[in-house]
């Protein structure tokens, strides 16, 4: 999903976090904050791929067009959500933890639905990416480099 879409979704997720934690401002803040900032792991993957920073425009194009050859995305894993919801279910999570779980869950759901055309169905499991050595050629529906050509062909 695009950054502006995650920013827009942060507002209802923040409200949900606030309500779910019994009116906790910390939970509301964490839900909204985490739903956007968990995408910072894309920056690390981009820098690894390019061996440096190529600018904001190239960063967004690389991510949106599926050009990265390695996809670690350490925060984008359903395994983290399972852990967070287990902590909540056992009563071990603070209100901000409830907000974190709601924000990350909302983000992951939107990514999973919104990026189906770019990545394979099991992409958002860390074990799946690790099993494929975090290799973009095995994780994207269209391998890096080819995606740019497919986009160009569809525009003609």
What does this molecule look like?
This protein is mainly alpha-helical. Helix content is 66%, strand content 0%. It is globular and about 50 Å long. The mean pLDDT is 90. Keywords: Membrane, Signal, Transmembrane, Transmembrane helix. It comes from Solidesulfovibrio fructosivorans JJ]. This is Membrane-bound metal-dependent hydrolase.
Write the layout of secondary structure elements.
Elements: H1 3-20, H2 25-37, H3 40-50, H4 56-64, H5 78-89, H6 95-114, H7 126-131, H8 136-139, H9 146-155
Helix pairs in contact: 1-2, 1-6, 2-6, 5-6
Summarize this structure as a short list of keywords or feature phrases.
156 residues; mainly alpha; Membrane-bound metal-dependent hydrolase; globular; membrane; transmembrane helix; signal
Head-to-tail CA distance between termini = 24 Å
Percentage beta strand: under 5%
User: How large is the count of helical segments?
Assistant: 9
The number of distinct β-strands equals 0
Gyration radius from CA atoms, angstroms: 17 Å
Helical amount: 55-70%
Tally the structural domains. Answer: 1
Shape: globular
Biggest β-sheet: count, sense, barrel?
A: none
Helix and strand succession? HHHHHHHHH
**Category from helices, strands and their pairing:** mainly alpha
Low-confidence stretches: none
> Mean pLDDT across all residues, rounded?
90
Keywords: Membrane, Signal, Transmembrane, Transmembrane helix
Protein name: Membrane-bound metal-dependent hydrolase
Organism: Solidesulfovibrio fructosivorans JJ]
């Amino acid at each position: 999903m695009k950054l502006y879409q995650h920013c827009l979704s942060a507002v209802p997720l923040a409200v949900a976090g606030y309500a779910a934690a019994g009116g906790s401002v910390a939970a509301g803040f964490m839900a909204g904050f985490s739903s956007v900032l968990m995408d910072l792991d894309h920056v690390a993957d981009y820098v690894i791929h390019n061996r440096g920073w190529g600018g904001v425009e190239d960063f967004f194009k690389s991510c949106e067009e599926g050009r990265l050859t390695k996809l670690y995305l350490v925060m984008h894993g359903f395994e983290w959500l399972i852990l967070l919801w287990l902590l909540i279910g056992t009563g071990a999570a603070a209100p901000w933890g409830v907000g974190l779980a709601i924000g990350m869950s909302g983000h992951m759901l939107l990514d999973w639905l919104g990026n189906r055309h770019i990545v394979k169905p099991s992409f958002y499991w860390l074990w799946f990416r690790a099993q494929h050595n975090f290799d973009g050629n095995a994780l994207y529906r269209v391998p890096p480099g080819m995606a740019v050509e497919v986009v160009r062909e569809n525009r003609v």
